[in-house]
Each structure stands twice: as C-alpha cells, then as structure tokens.
Here is the input.
Amino acid sequence: MHRIHPPLAGCFDEMLADDGETRGHYRDFLQWLTAQSPETLGQRRHEAELLFHRVGITFAVYGDDSGSERLIPFDTIPRILPASEWQTLEVGLRQRVAALNAFLHDIYHEQHILRSGLVPAEQVMVNNQYQVAMQGLDLPHHTYAHIAGVDVIRHADGGYYVLEDNLRVPSGVSYMLENRKMMMRLFPELFAHYAVAPVEHYPSLLHDTLREATHADNPTVVVMTPGHYNSAYFEHAFLAQQMGVELVEGRDLFVERDRVYMRTTAGPRQVDVIYRRIDDIYLDPLVFRADSMLGVPGLLSAYRKGNVILANAVGTGVADDKSTYPYVPEMIRFYLSEEPILNNVPTWQCRKPDELSHVLAHLEELVVKEVHGAGGYGMLIGPKASRSEIDDFRARLLADPANYIAQPTLALSTCPTFVDEGIAPRHIDLRPFVLSGKDVRIVPGGLSRVALTRGSLVVNSSQGGGTKDAWVLEA
Amino acid sequence: MMLSRTADHLYWMSRYLERAENLARLLDVSFSLSLLPQSKGARAEMSAPLVITETLKQYNARHDTLSAQTLFDFMALDRDNPASIVSCLKLARENAHAVRGKIPVEMWENINATWLQAKKLPSAVNVGEFFDWVKERSHLFRGVAYGTVLRGDAYSFVRLGTFVERADNTARLLDVKASLMDSGHGVDDFYAWSALLRALSAYEAYLELYREPPNAQSVTELLLLSPRLPRSLRASMEAICKILAQIEGEDSRVAQRDANAIRNELHFVRADEILRFGLHDYLNQRLIDINTLGERIYDAYLKAA
Here is the structure.
C-alpha cells in the first residue's frame, strides 16, 4: 500500500479537500493509483529517469562547479485542473497579456497611461529595462510579447493569483511537452480513461505565431540561442527542431545593408523573424554590451528599419518587472475597459517610504524580491529565514529600497508528490504559455513546477525544484 | 542548404566517431603484433600508434616507460589526452549536442549513450572487449545514420566526415606497416599483414580476392586501390567525390577538383609502382592531399565567420 500523507494545514491541496475527501476531478486517478503496487510505480519512475537521461533532457545549473548538466526531477503524479477552472484561467490570461502588450505599445509611443498618471512616469522611464531605441517603432499587430509565460499559483483561499508575468525569454515549455510525452509512455491506460486536453501542438502554434509576427511573405524563421552551454539549450534545440527551422547562434548571422542573413553551406540566406532566446543586452554589441560575443553587430539597426522581427521585442522587460507588476490590474481597466479576471498578489513597493516602513516592520512574515530578479535568486522568505538573513536583507533594503518589492508569504497550493517518505504534499505553481500574434493562442495547461523539499515554497528548477505534467480535463 | 556551423558540427561529429573506431582498430593491430612471440620489433610496433597520431611527445611527457598497459591507458582511456578514444567519443558527443535538433532522436541517443557508457568504464577494462565495444558503437552509429537520417545535406555532411576521416586513417594505418618496413622490421611478415587486414575488417575480403598469402603488394593493392573494399582509400575517395557532387554550394568547385584528383590518382596507379616509389613516401603524399582537401571542404561549406 502507498503511504499518502495528509494535506498541510493552512494550504489548499489539489487532490484532497480539508475534510480528507478526494476532490472530484482526482477521484478516478486516486483509485487507479491505489490499485498500483508501489513496486510497479517505482519501476516506472526509474524508467522515466533513464529515458530523460538518455534523451539528454538536462538542465545546466549556474554556479555549480561539478556543474555540467543534471536532470530536472520529474514527478509522475499529475497536477489535474478541471475544465471549468481552466476556462476562467484562459480568459484571464488572454486579458492580462493583451493589456501588457497594449501597455508596451503605449509606453513606446504616445504614453497615454503615463500622462493619465495611472502609472508613474519615472517608474517606467528610468527603469533600466526601458529601451529608448524602441520609441516610435511600429510592430506588426502591436505585439511585443509574442511568447509570455505567466506564473500562476493557487492560494489557501482556493483562488488563482498571478505571481509574475514573464515577457522576456520565458522558458520551460519543452518540459511541459516532454512531461506529457513521458506520462503517455509510462501510463497509457490513464490517458485512455481520462480525457486530457492535448498540448503537443504547441510548436506548431508557436511557428504560426512567429510567421504572423512579420509582414514578409513566406518568412524565414530562426531560433537564436546563446549556445549549447546555456542552461536552456535543450529547449532551444527542441523548439527549432519541432518547428523545422534553423537553430542559430550570433556568429551564424550577419547584417548587410540593414538586412539579416545566416551563413549556410549554400551561401547567405535572409532571415525575417528571430525567436531569440538571449537577453536584450546581448543582442547587438554595437548598441548594448560591446563585449557580447553572443550577438550580431548591426542587428538593432536592421530591426529599427523593420527588416527583421525579434520575438519577443526588445524592451519588454519593463512590463514584467516586479515594480510594474502592481499596476497590471490598472492596465487592464485602462486599455481594455474590463475588470481583471485573475488576481494580483498584494505588493508593497519599497521605493515608497510608507510601504518600505511597513515592509521593514514585517520582514518575518513577508517575501522580499529584487525588482529585476529571476530564477529564485536573491529573495528573502521571511518565515523561513534566519535572524541574520533577515538583518542582512534589512541592510540591503535600506541601502537601495527601490530595488525591492515585498509580498505576503503565499501559501502555494500543494499536490501529492512522490518523495522519500511516500506520497506527500508539496507546493506547486503553474506556468501557462500565451502566444500572441494576429490571434492569441494557448495550449491547455502549462508547466507545473514543484518544490521537492518539504515545506519549501521555491519551485525554480535552479533551486532544486521538479516538474509535473499538468492535465486540463476536457469538459 | 543548411547552416555552415551545423554542417561543421555534423561533419566533426562523424569524423570523431570514425576516428575513435580507427584508433581502436589501430591499437588492436599494434597489440596483436607486439604479442607475437617472434616479433623483433615489439617496441616499434607499440610506439607506432603514438607516432601516427602524433602524440609521442605528449606520451613521453607523462610516462617513462612504454608498456602495453600504459599505452592502452593513454591512447584509449585517458581523458586528458585529446587524441584518446574516450576523448574522441566526448568530442563527437559535444558536436552532436550542439546540433541535436538537427539529427534524429535515435542518433543523438546513440551518441549520448556511447559517451555515458564510456564515462563509466572501469579502469581495468578488458582490452579486447573494449576495442570490440568501440567498433560496435561505431557500427550502431552508422546503422542509425543509414536507417534514420533524411537524405539531404545533413546526411551528406555526416557521410563526408566519415569518409574524409577514414581516408586519412586507412592511409595512416597502412603507414604503420610502411614505416616498420622502412626500418627493416617485418618486411614480409605474414602475421603482420594478416593483423593489418583483420584490423580493417578486410581479412575475409582478402581471402576471397587473392590466392597468395598477404604481402606488401597484394595488401597495398587491396587497402589503397580496391574500389570494392569499404575501408580502402580508393573507396573512401569515390564516396567523397559522390557526396561533394550532391551538395549545393557557392564555391565548392575547388574541393570537388581536389577530391577528384586524388580519386583519379588512385584509379590509375598500380600497386607495384607505389612500392617502387616507396610506400611510406607515397602515403605521405596522399595524407598531405587529404589534409588539403579537408581545408577546401572547410572553406567551401563549413566556415562560420
């Protein structure tokens, strides 16, 4: 028999309700699970690990000396979402990303929202993610974030909250796809029984989105990677292959008379759309970092002339910045005249003196994050932190308040997960991927990350998090 | 049409795998020769792999003596020796990793699994088993290439790497014998020629084609000039010419011209002429030609920046 540990007090568990009853959408799964012998399931997990290793779905961890590549742990218990909840989420995501794209177009053009005073102008204009070079540049369909990865969590109240909007180079979609493939291979009987909404067509939706991003006829699309030492290289190669396009590095491209070409065995070929998986500052050494070996000299000039499309656009970071995040509900009202469907997490902006003093007085309860941070690096989780860590953060906050925001410690929902002590609740999140072009496209579900350490709220794979398959049940 | 850098990775991926296989073949022949009881040139036989891979200096810097075991450790397993078999497998894997999206999953899995197994090899691995394992992995790679890769430029560059490396290696392998002949060892040694044929999987072919015991002239003819033996220099050059003719390229004519010149030479020359000229000198010239051809191929297709 499996040992299934009870849910944690004060958290929403995706499978078990507070009274210990199994939630409706998990009932068949749990029945199936209890019918399997622990040995069989152990074998399947072992098989999954072998397969992931052989396929080489690995992840490079920065700052780890042994450091080459390791697997992201994969958990075989899926996170299941009922159709009705997903429908709400999907509408909310479309709304949110539409507002963010409208915001980006606005701040690089007429700046209505700044003039209306809803978002403080200095907040945007002095943000180092704001790219002056983007001012006045017209992009097809006014799309800036062609690919957005929105991190959503479920709080103890059972409601969904957006934790952050990733509009630069969000990653993880390949794990979503590989996890599904793995689950179907390991447990085909489950898929025969459950109507799980498919996600496998994501690469083709991505290709459609990228082709729509330009006015060029029959465009040549490429994926641009920093190279095979990058932590997400597997994903870059995977997406290029799945779309049937070239995977290029900066050195494969060159610019001549403001057009971008790739070097091929048959000579130069013009490139129309670059799905770039490198940050703004590495794109073009003539404009950004002169020491960047990853970029292409002259790329920005070609971009400004409209001869090539970058996806995502340059300068989207200003909209997913944690200092901009608190204003997203206002953006939705301002641009779409709609009420936000998805909740924002209440956020204190430490650049405001009164909010800073509240934060300093409640450090033990709050999560403090760097405004530009990502990957779970450089954050304080008050309830989990030691005295000296809190003191250290207090000093950092006082030295540079504008660099931080704080949020209440959210009780991320939990999902039963295979761990050493059996099947126990672990905290999870969900990153759906929103594709924007002429149309908005979303595959049902997303990447579900899980914090494997007991009680941990940090799900990032760079911090030892794992992943799960996320199932949206068809209605 | 494909990215020059992609073509470069594909080409070197298969060159390194072919090199690993040929190193295993080379070491195999040296080991069997040095084990022969009547072998007078055991030392010369053993140092031959170092000489033809141009790693004698590195070896001497690391080891005082030359024994079968230290040679095997250095040439087969030493990850710090960039020319070792294990290093070749690693480099092949790195090149494959860089273009994993451009090769079939099964090919990537094959190369990755080879490297993962190589990393786990015990230091006391059985020599013969190890050579067999390397050859087997290489056979698997060729099988997966033949059976899964879409026929097009990617396939062409994978095959091109194989044959350029093989042309070079076959010439070098024969040169082991040639150098030994020049230094007066084992001139008409039946066992030595048989070992060489076996190393190139050509022994059965030899028995089928020739009635006489293996000797300098017959072996030279088979290994250099036979269009039918898959590992001969001539067969490799025929393959290279055919592949080059299929790849679309802006300035590929020089590479094609040079490849055809080598092929024509091998087409018309006779084995007795080669021996009169001096086998070692003849092979040396062909090695220079092949090296130049490699540069032409690089200029025509692979140069990235």
Notes: The domain at 201-311 of chain A is CATH 3.40.50.11290 (Rossmann fold).
